[in-house]
Fold this protein.
Amino acid sequence: MQQRFSRTGFERAAKERQARFRQDSTTISGESKHPMDDKGMRNSHLLALGHEEENLFPGVRDGEAIDFFRQRNIKWWRNPRSGDDTNTDGPTRNMASSQVACVNFLLPLAGIPRALAAALRALDDDVRAVVDIAHDGRATPVEFEWLGLPRSLEGGVTRGAQNTSVDAFLIAETASGRRRAYLMEWKYVEQYLRTRPEFKGDGKSGDTRRRRYADAYRAPFSSFNPETAPDLDDFLYEPFYQIMRQRLLADRMVRMGELDVDEAKVVVVAPEDNLAYRLISDGRAVTSPPLARRFPRLATVDEVMRPCLKDPDSQFRMVSPSRLLEGVVRSLPKETVAWAGYWRERYGV
C-alpha cells in the first residue's frame, strides 16, 4: 500500500487536542493549566507538576484510581521525557498517555451496571455479562496491567513494568455459558513505522527472547498458524512483538484454565486515524519487513495478524475507541452522559 501521510500528523493533532482540553475544560484547575517548569511551558499537553491526578476522569479522582493501582502494586507509566518524577506514585502529567486513556475509559464504567458488558458487546454480540475477576482477595470487573497467573510469561510478578502484560483485562460470560477473557491493549499516539525498523532478535537480548517465547509459539496449543506464520523472528518488530507476546499469554491462560476461562481474545484499541500505528508500511517506512514481504497485499497490522492465527475471529481484534464508546452509549445513554461527554470532548470520539 503506497499511501503517503505524515507519520507524526496524528500525534501532533492529538497533542494539540489535549492542549485545547487542558485550556478549556472545567475539569482542569487553573493551577494545572500553567506549568512552571521548562518542559511544561514548552509542551502544552503537559499538566503542571503536582496536579497529575487531574489527568484522570473526575469520577475516578480523589484517590480511587491511584488506590486501585497502589493496592495491586501496579506501576503507572511515567517518563522523564515528560518531566515526570519517576520516584512518585500516580499517573503521568502527559495528557496523551495511552495508559491514562485506558483508565479513563474503563474504570468509570466499572461503577455503572452493565456498562462494561455493553463495551464488550461492541466486539462480540454473544457477550451476556462481565464477571468479576476474583484474585488476591478482591473481586473486580476490570483489572489493569494484567500479566496472568501466577506469574508473567517471563516469570515476574510486577504489574506494569518489565513483564508481558495487557493494559486491561476483563472476563465475559457468553450466550453459550463459556467464559471469554479479553486482553486489551490501549493505544493513543504510539507509532512504530521506521525507515530502519528495530529488530529485537539481535545479540544476547534476541537470544533471550527466542528462549522465552519459541516453545510456546510453536506448541500445539499456540494460536499461531505454522503454515502462514512459521518464523518467530518475523514478530520481533513492534507492534507485532507486543501483540505476539500478549497472544501467547492468552494461549497460556486458556491452556491452564486461569480464572476458569475457556477462551481468550487479544484486543488492540487504537484510533482509526492513527495510521502510523495501524499501517504495516506507508511505502517509505515499515514495521516488520519480513511480514510485509510475506503479505505484500495486506496494508494494516490488523490485516496481517489475521492470517497468522489459526482462528483469527476468536483470537484477535483491532477496534477504535469510538466503536466501544458508541456501544456503551447506545445501551446506556442516560447513565453514561457525563463519561461520554468527557470522552468526546477530550479525545474527539
